[in-house]
Amino acid sequence: MMIPIIQRNVGWIEVICGCMFSGKSEELIRRLRRTLIARQKVSIFKPKIDNRYSANHIVSHSENKIESRVVEHSREILDGSLESHVVGIDEAQFFDEELVDVCIKLANMGKRVIVAGLDMDYRSEPFQPMPKLMAVAEYVTKTQAICVRCGNPATFTQRTTQEADQVVIGAQNIYEARCRNCFEPPAPETNNKPKAAASANHKTS
Ligand code: ADP
Ligand code: ZN
């Protein structure tokens, strides 16, 4: 992705999206590390999903990590990053819909906002608020994993259990990266459930 040299005091939104294991967190951490090297003020956030995993770091599946703050509502991101040049947000699909307005406000204030999250849930439905963020972002990067079945580029998150709960916490034990050919949508009775009962997931390995 080419980001041109930008005049001071102009903010923008970068979205990093893709399936599980596609390297979203790694890419987010890479971009944030570079801003830290440049001595920019950086605030990094992730949503509170499960108390058991509220550690104060963003951790990739490859064990790469960077310090972050856990917040319950996207509004807390605004208050928590007033002094920052750069704002990083991981697992954005677990935030409320207000995250879109929060990111727009931050960018309008002149900040660089980098948001990473799953673009689709386990049923391959768009995972709000990611689609809206992709629409309003200046830059969108879609990362791909490797399909564990056939080795092609993977863009789908396969849930390997029968659960249909809103949030099912897990990593390799519950989810796999699959390509379009190898992705098996959940059974119809799961598909008929209301959207609010759809899935989510979280790396916890
Ligand atoms: P994401 O945030 O998109 O879930 P991470 O950045 O946390 O992804 O992890 C990416 C890492 O996951 C890769 O560098 C690799 O070590 C590991 N990984 C596990 N399964 C796969 C897969 N099927 N394809 C690619 N990488 C995988
Ligand atoms: Zn495949």
What ligands does this structure carry?
Answer: adenosine-5'-diphosphate, zinc ion
Q: What is the class of the domain at 12-143 in the CATH system?
A: Alpha Beta
Q: Strand sequence of the main sheet, in spatial order?
A: 5-2-6-7-1-8
CATH topology tier name of the domain at 12-143: Rossmann fold
Radius of gyration: 17 Å
Could you characterize the architecture of this molecule?
With 205 residues, the protein is of the alpha/beta class. The protein has a domain at 12-143: Rossmann fold (3-Layer(aba) Sandwich), CATH 3.40.50. The chain contains five helices and twelve strands. The chain has helices at 24-37, 75-80, 99-108, 130-136, 188-191, and strands at 12-18, 42-47, 57-59, 65-67, 69-71, 86-89, 112-118, 139-143, 145-146, 153-154, 156-159, 175-178. The strands form four sheets. A six-stranded parallel β-sheet has the order 5-2-6-7-1-8, sandwiched between helices. Strand 9 and strand 10 form a beta hairpin. Helix 3 (99-108) runs parallel beside helix 4 (130-136). It starts with 11 loop residues before the first strand and ends in a 14-residue tail after the last helix. Mean pLDDT is 87; it is low at 190-205. Zinc ion (ZN) is lined by residues 147, 149-150, 152, 178-179, 181-182.
